[in-house]
């Protein structure tokens, strides 16, 4: 039997204020090193990456990079070539805060490790299966054709991972399941999954759309924007800053974007914190209800990411009012325990699961799979799978 050689895989998630990394031994998936470097005043992005490359060591066999926006050019992860870099650059305007720094991370890794393969894994890829009825905005079609203005969706790697785990937990193949995946962290997105594929998702052209988030507004009537410009005397960029950084839970409560703070202060009688929590749950309900309709019912609801994995109170509030759709929580299982588990009662027709997400392992597996399926690596003849 052929055994695959062990490969050291460096997974990088480069953001503007921090860089997260994990070094895996593959295929055993043993973690050799991990960390989250926050950018200090003194340290440049390049210095941070050099530090990570030092920690990872000279014997790295491949790297995998998170790229936020792949638009409609990347329905799957790819090995990076010059052509792939050009295509990624061509859609960077869709995520100006994220893509340039993701691409810079790839360039630095290529410079440091010139003779190994580098993979790009996109937040948008999983959602490329959405039908036009999900991804088109009801604006003149020419804008879609001319500028690619449509819904793309994000957190795709996370939704893909938890879908796989849910299928294991439920003992059913993913292509036989209708799932509603709730990624509730700093950013929040809800995805309707059908036949193992994303069918609809709450985020849009950018990660600002959808449900209420920590500091992001989620959906609002677009006419609010020119009103604010006029009434507050501010420019569009400033409105967008407010919608991204001063809205959501923070904007409504006036106190915090952290659910833990809000739960505590609300219990002490702070009304706007309670209002922020209630509104947060109500917007999640709207999308979950919508996806019950889009999927014609669901077999399971998944909770993942910081809040989804760790807040039994929020999970309970969300499930209250979903009994109509066959969602019955086991309150004890919800409150107790940690990690991956079923938290619906035994007779609940729709299962409810907590599944800690693991985007890094998906990235490392994708990189290994791409390298193993690309025997031409090293000869300069990599097929571009876009
Ligand atoms: P993420 O974006 O997935 O890293 O999630 C980060 C967010 O999860 C933080 O901003 C917190 O608000 C939230 N969080 C983490 N732990 C808890 C907890 N025990 N209860 C409620 N929220 C939590």
Automatic annotation (TrEMBL):
Keyword Hydrolase listed: no
GO molecular function, one term: ATP binding
Pfam family, one: Acetate_kinase
Annotated keywords: ATP-binding, Cytoplasm, Kinase, Magnesium, Metal-binding, Nucleotide-binding, Transferase
Pathway: Metabolic intermediate biosynthesis; acetyl-CoA biosynthesis; acetyl-CoA from acetate: step 1/2
Annotated catalysed reactions: acetate + ATP = acetyl phosphate + ADP
Active-site feature positions: 123
Subcellular location(s) of the protein: Cytoplasm
Protein name, per record: Acetate kinase
Organism the protein comes from: Cohnella candidum
Taxon lineage: Bacteria, Bacillati, Bacillota, Bacilli, Bacillales
Name of the coding gene: ackA
């Amino acid at each position: 039997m052929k055994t695959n050689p062990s490969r050291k895989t460096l997974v990088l998630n480069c953001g503007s204020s921090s860089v997260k990394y994990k070094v895996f031994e593959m295929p055993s998936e043993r973690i050799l090193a991990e960390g989250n470097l926050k950018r200090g005043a003194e340290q440049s992005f390049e210095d941070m990456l050099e530090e990570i490359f030092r920690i990872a060591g000279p014997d790295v066999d491949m790297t995998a990079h998170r790229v936020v926006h792949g638009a409609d050019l990347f329905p799957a992860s790819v090995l990076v070539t010059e052509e792939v870099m050009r295509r990624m650059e061509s859609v960077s305007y869709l995520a100006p805060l994220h893509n340039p720094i993701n691409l810079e991370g790839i360039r630095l890794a290529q410079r440091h490790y010139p003779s190994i393969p580098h993979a790009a894994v996109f937040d948008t890829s999983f959602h490329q299966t959405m039908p036009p009825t999900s991804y088109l905005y009801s604006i003149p079609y020419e804008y879609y054709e001319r500028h690619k203005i449509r819904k793309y969706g994000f957190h795709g790697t996370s939704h893909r991972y938890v879908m796989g785990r849910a299928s294991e937990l439920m003992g059913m193949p993913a292509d036989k399941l209708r799932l509603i995946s709730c990624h509730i962290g700093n950013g929040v997105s809800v995805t309707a999954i059908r036949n193992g594929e994303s069918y609809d998702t709450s985020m849009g052209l950018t990660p600002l759309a959808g449900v209420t988030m920590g500091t992001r507004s989620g959906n609002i009537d677009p006419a609010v924007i020119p009103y604010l410009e006029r009434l507050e005397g501010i420019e569009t960029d400033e409105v967008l800053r407010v919608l991204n950084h001063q809205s959501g839970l923070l904007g409504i409560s006036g106190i915090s974007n952290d659910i833990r703070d809000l739960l505590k202060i609300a219990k002490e009688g702070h009304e706007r914190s309670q209002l922020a929590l209630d509104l947060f749950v109500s917007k999640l309900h709207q999308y979950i209800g919508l996806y019950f309709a889009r999927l014609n019912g669901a077999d399971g609801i998944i909770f993942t990411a910081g809040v989804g994995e760790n807040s039994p109170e929020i999970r309970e509030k969300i499930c209250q009012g979903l009994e109509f759709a066959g969602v019955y929580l086991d309150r004890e299982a919800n409150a107790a325990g940690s990690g991956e588990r079923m938290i619906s009662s035994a007779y609940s027709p729709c299962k409810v699961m907590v599944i800690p997400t693991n985007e890094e392992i998906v990235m490392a597996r994708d990189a290994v799979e791409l390298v193993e399926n690309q025997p031409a690596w090293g000869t300069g003849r990599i097929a571009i799978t876009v």
